[in-house]
Design brief:
The structure is a homodimer.
Chain A: H1 8-20, H2 34-37, H3 42-47, H4 62-69, E1 77-79, H5 87-98, E2 107-109, E3 120-123, H6 126-130, E4 135-139, E5 151-153, H7 156-172
Parallel strand pairs in A: 1-2, 3-4, 4-5
């Protein structure tokens, strides 16, 4: 969810402005860990706060892309929500708002993602992609710009192109 | 969780007694679906009620068995919690009470369990075991007494015996 279908960086920018008066931009997060950009342990403070996850903005193109993928794939939403106590109900409510067409049967809140047995995984964190046994796709985020160990997707438009190619390959087998 | 480490049938008996004055026994659930034993749609009413999952009693021997298994296996708690809105935070709190030694990294709340890629799964429901790709173990419950398509475990003592044998087999390979 975070950094793939939910634009969590924009939420960090909003909360930090409200908190400190300083308006960061997305560029400020490039090549850095989010915890380095938000000083004084604010990252941890925000993600463990009530309401943080409830109204995170959507990642551009995410709703349309998931709807499009669902025509040919079984799409599961997998979030490492277990670390943050408030996030469970907030993330569930967020999905009901923005992705009402995703059934409860296809939502997974977990910790460690290494036991997820899907064919593909789109994620922004190397720790999730590295242990994944299927095809791992890295969704670009400021904190992963220096990584080159997984197929990179810079946007949902690129994601759709990738899966169109996968379908073509599958049909020609 | 339910029917494996949490004794949900005892919670049904408690709630039904409070609700109707009638005291059922565990035997009343033998060979029947739980929804048949609890009349007038009460099953659905209970599991969608606030507080139902918060204080379900422990299944006999579950805590000790999980602790014992953790010496040789990586144990994940997987619950189809996504169907019931209140259950997410209640089940998380329940696990913190009774299984504080299970890390958040090893807890998974999902819908459909078919994407869980563990080596073994212990469950009471055929719908979860049938689609599982690893070794499926059926934990005995009243509603699954007529099933014979999976290795049956009648108690946590039997579960521990099963896994001791698996370890021996693994060591002799």
């Amino acid at each position: 969810m975070d950094g793939v279908i939910a634009d969590t960086v924009v939420q960090f920018i909003r909360w930090y402005q409200r908190d400190s008066g300083v308006l960061l931009t997305k560029k400020d997060f490039d090549w850095k860990k989010e915890a380095e950009v938000l000083p004084d342990g604010r990252l941890r403070k925000y993600v463990t706060s009530k309401d943080f996850f409830r109204d995170v903005p959507l990642m551009e193109g995410a709703v349309e892309a998931v709807q499009s993928l669902m025509k040919n794939f079984e799409v599961y939403i997998v979030s490492a929500a277990m670390e943050f106590p408030y996030s469970l109900s907030e993330k569930k409510a967020w999905l009901e708002d923005h992705f009402p067409f995703i059934s409860w049967t296809h939502i997974i809140f977990c910790g460690d993602k290494s036991v997820i047995g899907t064919d593909y995984m789109i994620d922004d964190h190397l720790r999730n992609l590295d242990s994944f046994r299927g095809k791992a796709l890295m969704f670009t985020a400021g904190h992963n710009l220096n990584a080159n160990t997984h197929t990179r997707i810079n946007s949902w438009a690129e994601g759709l192109t990738f899966f169109r190619e996968e379908l073509k390959k599958g049909q020609s087998l």
